[in-house]
Amino acid sequence: MASDDDVTTGNVFDLDKLSLEELNQAKQQEEGRLQALTSRYAQLRAAAARLTASSNAISEISPSSEGKEVMIPLTESVYAPGKLREPNKLLVEIGTGFYVEKKPSETNEFLNRKLKIVDANSENITKAVQATRQNLDSIAMSMQGKMIEIRARQEGQRHRAAAEGSK
After folding, report:
1. Which end of the chain has less neighbouring CB within 10 Å, N or C?
2. What value does the mean pLDDT take over residues 83-111?
């Protein structure tokens, strides 16, 4: 039987040598992996959308924006009203709870670098999703072959039993 490590680490194993029960277990593991990958992909796409929205908002800031009323995000769903005091200085979160002051152009460069990383990770996850789907297809085909094999064996046993009973 393929160990849990074989399935989770992507080790290759011969599906034809696995029992129907082992194939079903591998299928469940791959389905769980696919679900986790799909969830992670959605999170990355949401992050990319936030980065793009932030970049677009920063592009609208100009020196004449000073004193303009703005809504400042405190969390993803809570905003507070404020006024833009110095449009050429932005506070940028560079990590959990760490902020630096940057110019709008520097902030956009920072956001674009982060967006490239998110896009690269999304691309890697897309490839992993495709590979996992291929694994699931292979497992399903192998399971189908095993079931046909089992039915044929049972049918052969019935024919032999019927032939012996008619003697």
Report:
1. C
2. 92
